[in-house]
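ok so heres the complex, two chains, lmk if somethin looks off
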Amino acid sequence: MEAYPVKGRLFIAAAAVGSLAAAGCSSSSSSSTAASGGTTSASAAAKTCVASIGMEGPLTGPVAPLGQEQLHFAELAVAMDNAANKTQITLVQGDTQLNPAQATTVTQQFISNSSIVAVVGPAGSQEVEAIGGPMGRAGMAFISGSATAVALTTGTYPTFFRVVSKDSVQGPQDANYIVKTLHPKDLMIVDDQEAYSTGLVSAMLPIFQAAGIKVDHESVSQKVTDFSSLVAKVTPATSVVVLPWQIAANAQQFGRDLAQQHKTAVIFGTDGLFSPGTFSITGSYVSSFGPDITAIPADVAIASAAKAKYGSFGTFGPPVFAATHVIDEAIASVCKAGQTPSRSNVLAAIKNTHEPASILGQPISFDSHGDLVNGKFFLFKITSTGKYQLIPSS
Amino acid sequence: MSFFLQELVNGITTGALYSLVALGFSMVYGVLKLLNFAHGDVYMIGAYIGFFVIQWFGGAAHVSIPVPLLLVIMFVLAAGVTGGLGVAIERFAYRPLRDAPRIAPLITAIGISFFLENAVLLLFGAQYRIYNTPEFISLSSGIRIGSVTIDTVQIMVVLLSVALMAGLQLLVNRTKWGRQVRAVAADREAAEMLGINVNFTISMTFFLGSALAGVAGVMGGLLFNQVTNTIGFIVGLKAFTAAVVGGIGSLPGAMLGGLLIGLAESFTIGYISSTYSNLLVFALLIIVMLVRPSGLLGQAQLQKV
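and the predicted structre for the whole thing:
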């Protein structure tokens, strides 16, 4: 399962974008459009490699911007892989709204659909916990591009994989950076009442407390947009506010409220706050499980194709591209071996994934519990021009 | 003391916003005994209209007309369009069910709410739209007393809300239309027999209530800077709570309820913890309901609409 050679990416990306455009923005028709563009021999080959992939993500609801970005990159990956491998893979969407109950319903539908051989997603750790059992019983592989809770890869969910690192890496890494580099005496940390956010807070708090930092732990719902009262609690001694949030627009408003009340605390955010154009408070830090692929030379073609088709994007899309690509390649390898793709042989192929390079700028392979081997996080600082500058030591 | 005053300012501002939205809830309940759960989504539509007006005139950083004129256009257009939307919702979704069991329009209201949310998602996408208010109304243009900051937008929101609430009170108490509204609220059939055009009166009630929500949407956009298709849910819920706390059907009650909810939220976050703000706000609702089931001004207020 090799990543695309760099020189071939431009052509494949162009073909994929063309096929997506021909599909008239249809969100689940990338396979048919790719096939229609093939030659006779390619069509014949494609007939032998037909499969569907489920895609679970928060396509509506408060975090729909992230879910839509994930969907777009999954579509792009399927289109590019269909063009490259002459496969006929179809993406089937499932909207989970980042809600475990909704994810369970979608998962049951996917399990009942015999054409679906593997699933990309879901986005949230709490959703993985809800569907891990049924997925395991169905023998269906599922790869998340953003679920980072530590408990997910302790062996409980045998068919779960992820292409991002986990909270036990990110939380301590971020907290240590704050302690050692920003040297706060007082600090406010605000969770957004979701498992992702509270998990990170739990990983960070002991480090802050051990460093003797006075911590004000607050909590607000993702749906709240008025932070003026909370910002009033930021004391002059509070030099850092940690926001492990998923909604960048909320952090932007928090930063505006800080400025409006003449507070000088620096914002330190995570993952969802990586959103150039939405979150642009100068001097803020953002740690992310995904890299800025626009800064990776080998990803230029994919980044250009994504931007041309869908507009600007953050770091939630590329890991889903990587996850989808892993499944696409697993299906292709099954077909090349002369077999018909099924849940069991695709699962086996995914377990054997060894991509020497990927869109994430690192190799992709999984350990026995489904964790990405040598996963890492990236830390950025926002400059006065709103640019996200990678901090090299991260 | 300055911390108390800052939270007071924040609470009054948010409360003014809730009050405006709560008025629409209360007006509609007054005339139809209907809980219009789509009302929060009308607020959301108003916020979108404000955003698109900013874009139409060059975007936040390059507004091509004087800012006061821009604001007037934003508010007037949002009020007009959302008022019209309210009339359309009443005409096509609620009027056919006026004599149906009360659960039917209630479910329809929830359906309309989801319809609006998802229609906007389909039309405008999932991404957050950012007002970027500080680009055209400077953060430093407000008042600073010691460490208490009151920015221009907060002042504008409070003053405009008070003016609109006072205007609505005058409209309901001092005009012929207001008398008709009160008559329909008291007894729809009797009002009809007396020659009052009930359909028109109800339509106008929806227009005004929705227009206020639209104006509140623009205020919310200016204050909180962000618009997406789900912003109406939490504001709608808080405004509904405000209407119930104040005494649903009572206009002064809706205003008082909004202010109380805003202040309760602000002081809970400031003095206790943000973690418990919703808990305490809704605990307040329960306590008021237990002590005064009709709300704080629900019985004392005679001028139901």
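quick notes: Residues 15-230 of chain B form one domain. thats all i got rn
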